[in-house]
């Protein structure tokens, strides 16, 4: 198996888990067999672009998100943080631009307050 296919599969697994989807649920949404999803996530399958598109659509993410690999250490804290960030992204993906900008502005204000508290 190639490192690239393994990275794509790991990324799909990570996004799926962040959305609390089972392999079976993702397979059903994508119109694929659940064992096929397992093979994709392990990097055992050299999938077509058409199949990748089905998986991306079923996950409801932008295509670029599948290729945002994290080559850093895979400590549990980093995995947990990544899953939370993906969950936040999933919450925002269906929102309009104004709503996303509002959440961004609020997040910046909250982080500024946290940073101020740290400096006291």
Write up this protein:
The longest helix has 22 residues, at 97-118. The protein is mainly α and 120 residues long. The mean pLDDT is 89. The protein contains six helices and no strands. The protein is elongated. 70% of the residues lie in helices and 0% in strands. The protein has helices spanning 3-18, 23-30, 34-42, 49-59, 76-93, 97-118. The protein has a single domain (3-118), classed as 434 Repressor (Amino-terminal Domain), CATH 1.10.260.
Number of structural units classed as domains: 1
Name of the CATH architecture: Orthogonal Bundle
Q: What do we call the CATH homologous superfamily?
A: lambda repressor-like DNA-binding domains
Low-confidence stretches: none
Question: Main beta sheet, described?
Answer: none
Which class do the helix and strand fractions yield? mainly alpha
Q: Level of helix content?
A: over 70%
CATH class value? Mainly Alpha
Q: N- to C-terminal separation? A: 52 Å
The counted number of beta strands is 0
Give me the Rg, rounded: 17 Å
Question: How do the helices and strands line up, and which of them pair or pack?
Answer:
Elements: H1 3-18, H2 23-30, H3 34-42, H4 49-59, H5 76-93, H6 97-118
Helix pairs in contact: 1-3, 1-5, 2-3, 2-4
């Amino acid at each position: 198996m190639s490192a690239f296919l393994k990275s794509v599969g790991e990324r799909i697994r990570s996004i799926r888990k962040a959305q609390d989807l089972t392999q079976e649920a993702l397979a059903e949404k994508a119109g694929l067999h659940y064992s096929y999803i397992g093979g994709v996530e392990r990097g055992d399958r050299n999938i077509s672009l058409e199949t990748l598109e089905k998986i991306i659509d079923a996950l409801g993410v932008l295509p670029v998100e599948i290729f945002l690999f994290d080559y850093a250490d895979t400590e549990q804290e980093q995995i947990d943080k990544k899953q939370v960030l993906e969950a936040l992204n999933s919450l925002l993906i269906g929102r309009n631009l104004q709503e996303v900008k509002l959440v961004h502005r609020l997040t910046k204000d909250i982080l500024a307050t946290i940073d101020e508290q740290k400096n006291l």
